[in-house]
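User: Show me sequence and structure for the first protein, then do the same for the second.

Assistant: Starting with the first protein.
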Amino acid sequence: MKKSLKKYFNFSKFRSGQEEIVESIVGGKDVIALMPTGGGKSLCYQLPAVLFENLTVVISPLIALMKDQVDALNARGIGATFINSSLSEKEIQKRIDDILKKKTKILYIAPERLGNSAFQKFFNELEIDFLAVDEAHCVSQWGHDFRPDYLNLKENISKLKKRPIVAAFTATATPEVKKDISVRLGLRDPEVFVRGFDRPNLRFFVRANMKKSDRRTEALRLIKKLEGSGIVYAITKKEAEAMADFLVDNGVSAACYHAGMNAEKRSEVQNGFMENKFKVIVATVAFGMGVDKADVRFVIHIGMPGSLEGYYQEAGRAGRDGELAYCILLHNGGDAGLYHFFIQGDKRQMISQGKSWDEINSVVSMKYEKVNNMKKYVEDDACRRKVILEYFDDPDLENSATNCGGCDVCLNYQWGNGASNDSGSNSQKKRSQRVQGEISATVQETVGLHQKGHTVEEIAKIRTMAKSTIFNHLIDWYVSGGDFDLESHITPEEESEILRAMSEAEDYQRLGSIKEKLSDEISYEKIRMVIAKIQRINLK
């Protein structure tokens, strides 16, 4: 098992909790695994897929996530594919032929695909060793993102000629949802794993009761201050589009991403975000943003989500590479009222569908409770991290420190000067690491792949990061003494032009002041390469 972990995923050891889950699945047990976003749950179904003889099927509601994970798996040499509504019928048939020829180890599909009678017939005849249900909270009416098509999975599984091992994975399940998942998927005596929901590299900040007019301006200020790329979540599609336009008008490369866009446009935006062509994607909280990008440095909510499950799922998309990242919620007093309006709309819809009053009252009460728990997170003067861990009944809560040192409450943060008191110290810490010849674990992983002969493009796909991020990892390694061949990525003429621009820049430590004096063909990465050569000389 560990040989395959190293061979296919380039990891020498498992993250906390992963090994027990994989062992249980490979040992033939059904599993429920509750792991936070960024906790490594995808490996818990991808590694067993490599070890099993026949096909593994992954049920996922997120079309964008399918593409990113399939690209990464294929880059690792694991045959993977997806079938969803973004493909033509011709392409779907080609992928079905590859599955029948056993060229595919992992197949990703959305639950809605099983509603297609032709596909259902094909599916029922497959030899499936393992079926993984990702985002399994969607199977439960108590889940924050309930989807009716998940309810048919139990019946779909029963129609297979051989019942596979079934595992349910989620990053946001309360104890009630956990029980519901087991029943609705028909799991057989499942082993349940609850792995720590704490993400120490994330910093949680809330600014409550802002004016709507101020919230947009504050988001802009934060985005300009924070390094790297990020996601901004809005409550409504209209607000998401307006925020994206506002950012672009103020010099920030941004794009909107929501369920109302066609598949081609969503794919275009997704690919641009993966390559850091956009600093920011603005999405609606109602839409599951499944872009599998590990180096997201911040997630900003310009509006309160309707539940803590939804918030932690979305905020957790930050910092999946283990590096410092920020989760910032900008709240307005009218946010909760908007959810009350949505809930009443849901109530009227259930009445028109002929639902019983008991069921209607149960669902409505549950949704109001979720909104109130979210308000508690925003309004209480209590450690943000502790509120989250208590809500998810985290087993490690009793061992957590009184002061987490990573939220606005525990840091006694005063709004007005930036996203966090430690953002500047983080850059200084990185410089210190370089001087001492140290590099972070995430940079070491990139270096390991580079030393195995993978190109920058291949590493970016494998690690679900932008190529620019991979270049920066290798530049960090170079500064600390690594043998990254900078000369193969920059010409002497480009280097001379950058040095000239540095000498003319008002502040050569600010890349922007150098870049504005250069041609468009010279990237920020090339500027960093020249600076890295100077730093390395100075360190000798």
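Switching to the second protein now.
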Amino acid sequence: MDDISRMKELIDILNKASRAYYSDDEEIMSNVQYDALYDELLSLESKTGTVIADSPTQKVGYEVQSALPKVKHQSPMLSLDKTKDPAALKAWLKDKEGDLSWKMDGITVVLTYENGELVQAATRGNGETGEIITANARTFKNLPSKIPFNGQLTIRGEAVISYDDFEKINGSIPEGEQKYKNPRNLCSGSVRQLNSRITAERNVNLIAFSLVEAQGIDDINSRWKRLEFLRDLGFETVYTKQVTAADVEDAVRWFSENIKNNKYPSDGLVLTLDDRAYSLTLGTTAKFPRDSIAFKWQDETAETKLLDIEWNASRTGLINPVAVFEAVELEGTTVSRASVHNLSLVEELKLGVGDIIEVYKANMIIPQIKKNMTGSGTVVVPESCPACGEATEIHNEKGTKTLVCVNPLCPAKRIRSFEHFVERNCMNIEGLSVQTLEKLVDMGFIKEFADIFSISAHKDRIEKMEGFGEKSFNNLIESIERSRNVEPGNLLNSLGIPNVGLSNAKLVADHFDNDVESVINACEEDLTGIEGIGPVIGRNIYDYFHSENTLSAFRRLIKELNIIKPVKSTTSSPISGKTFVITGSLNTFQNRDELKRYIEDRGGKVTGSVTSKTDFLINNDVTSGSGKNKKAKELGVPVIDEDSFREMAEGI
């Protein structure tokens, strides 16, 4: 592994450790391990002269601006001529060597370094004039803030957001707010923020595709080698294949087969002559440079019949239209559904059941409707939400119409609560992924927790769902049946009461001798007086069981269950009656849940935070400077490792 690759690996490891420590109060490595890796990173940064913006050795100062200043580019940034015919690339290349790469679908940025420091970053803008985004560029996740190069260096690259980060950001948008349409749309807004802290939170990456100028390296004529030069400086460069007329069509096929493996959005390919000196002699047309050409995927289309428009409620409150049509083959797969995005597009396409439509895969991935040959416009917009049955509203934001459910109790908005309900430490129902839950909610089969135990009534329709079949359905039903036998602590944890995790749920259940009715009828003082619970958690539990809506839903749920009391150990144990807190990584126990069960089976208790009533903090790094270790030291609570705990528990 070369030095730059090792640096990137270290940055990833150290940043994960920092997030775990500062955000989750977890330790995934000891201070000694962290310091050793940090020192290794510092040493490599000193050796290579490269510092990546995301490095933990750097302190990024965020900047807020009132407006983005404009800058005129030294040379115009022209658009590329385009073709959809691979054979045209062969004819264009003739006897020259070329470099074929992804055409990244983001925001083009020009970056200038002087004596190793980033001094300016600007967007492409209209090709003549761009906007200065230097403060934002300094927060790009993978961009070197320092490079081992004296003099001036200018590069062009594409600011992009990965599909994974796009999904995470969209999933974090508050209910009722409109999501971003695609990664490029999100990236554009992120790059042009006036507050660079927001840009930093979006995980923007910079993929370099061209070295424009670098003082003293004019002898590097090959564009391929110029990209290698940028990689050696620490830049992430666009994936590229060297081609000739003889193999360019094979290379296009390779890219088309691997587009699904590209973590960043791409809307085609770019073919550039490798010989830079020769390229400069070609000049430009009025609109295009003569040394490069873009290849756009030839969209494979098919005509089909529109069978239905499904309206799917989402966790944001938007009700999204999905076209269902007679199945057709596109790009080697069978397609029968396509998102129509919003109400405005339904109206623009004049959709109606029975219409003959033309469909394709955008960028060879996403099924879309290209046009409607019939244009009946007979689709009826639902007046009630398909998930909850409450009235819908049509919102018009910046000229785009959307259909919205405004019911705050809509089950579609509670997907996360259903997801939590089925987790291993709750009801432990295997086979109900968030994607499956969303489908079952969309179809109206799940409106509250109790409905999960009745989905066998919808066997025929569920077996026809994408990714399902008779075997999958039977496995799911078996898992649901097993989950009916549940301990009170797991049941209380599954309800999603704020601040109530498994440890607190078990404390409450144990206090009331695992009698659920006693928990329901407990007064607020009884709950807040439980050791390790406190006023906030106690109040949350009291409120849950004194709300008519949640209590009636809980009553319907427990009718479906067989609530069993946990079997307590009848043998005396040295740790019986003692209270423990667990933090950090474990060596002999598989995970914290296993250690919790071990303690509870022997009459001990496990709580989430260190207090004066804590007897021991278990942490394999007893000298750690974590928040829990510091609190234990302040309160005089002993910190012990796993081996010491084992000796105590087993009376050794």
